[in-house]
Amino acid sequence: MTGGTGFIGSHTVVELQQAGYQVVIVDDLSNSKVDVIDAIEKITGIRPEFANFDLSDRAKTLAFFLKNSDVKAVIHFAAFKAVGESVTKPLEYYRNNVNSLLNILESMKLSGVSSLVFSSSCTVYGQPKQLPVTESTPRLPAESPYGNTKAINEDIIRDFCHAEPSIKGLALRYFNPIGAHPSALIGESPVGVPNNLVPYITQTAAGLRKELSIFGNDYNTPDGTPIRDYIDVVDLAKAHVVAIKRLLEGKNKANYEFFNIGTGRGLSVLELVNAFMKSTGVNLPYKIVGRRAGDIEKIWADTSLANNELGWKAVVPIEETLLNAWKWEKNVRNLK
Ligand code: UD1
Fold first, then answer.
1. Interval between CA 197 and ligand 1 midpoint (Å)
2. Distance CA 147, CA 84 (A)
3. Which of 51, 84, 116, 194 is most buried when burial is the number of CB atoms within 10 A of its CB?
4. Largest CA-CA distance found in the chain, in angstroms, rounded
5. Choosing from 146, 174, 200, 256, which is the catalytic residue?
6. Which numbered atom of ligand 1 lies nearest the CA of 212?
7. Is position 146 annotated as part of the catalytic site?
8. Residue 89 has what pLDDT?
9. In the predicted model, what is the mean pLDDT of residues 243-253?
10. Confidence at residue 155, expressed as pLDDT on a 0 to 100 scale
């Protein structure tokens, strides 16, 4: 697994190990900490193997695959993911996110690994005309270089799996992943001021930030704030377990498949803020400010395909997800 010490990766290691899979993490720790491995071991009782290198290094990537000849499948999470930063540093984003995928695919071919699960994003849909979005909703031009690397990488996998019929690819298009493991031992640890809503909320609740700024309440939604499909990170992690199983058991219906991974329910920013206050009992100061550039108005998933084909469904209630995010933040900050 690449990016296994990151937010979604670490939760997926836990679910895979608990389902009986053996995991090797590759991560260069550019946006995560090695302590995550101790936390994973604490939760599962199993220490995952760990290799620290940069997957955009072609020779190192191939050497890793040739050395680890017992690897049966790859889940590729490792990527740069800050939308705003990708606008100011496009070459870094293309070089890192695209090259690492190219190196992984080439190495899979040369070492005989045939299954790949890829982290994609609902960002590939842009602002869809019809909601909810299904997998046949057309993709729209990306709003940012980050979003474009997701679209490009999906296409690269599709074309490669077409050219190499022995290789199977499956992309999961995540909606908005939030929350933390119920143990509060792993969670999301953004560096610096968080860009994403839930880390900003929990840091505000912990007293690190004065108040939450809500970016616009003049959207065409019931309360005027934007709507997203917030998916619990443990539910999301479990989608990877069923995806890997599908590929390893040869249950896939095409060499390249893609699925929406969300809850199917849209929540506005205000609804999420109110759910946080209700489930944690913590008052959250907030103010309404102007819209954030590049934000879309509303999106949520039709998850029928994942429900029916993968036999996967999001089950964690939003209150529990937000409580887990809060427990994690308190643990990180040593709060009671
Ligand atoms: C963003 C990315 C998306 C990426 C995802 C990763 C953009 C345009 N999209 O999604 O491509 O896959 O992160 O998780 O950046 N909000 C506030 N105040 C805040 C922070 C956020 O009001 O301080 C609002 C935003 O306006 C938005 C919602 O909260 O309506 C969710 O924002 P965020 O968590 O940043 O996710 P997205 O922008 O949906």
1. 6
2. 11
3. 116
4. 55
5. 146
6. 23
7. yes
8. 97
9. 98
10. 98
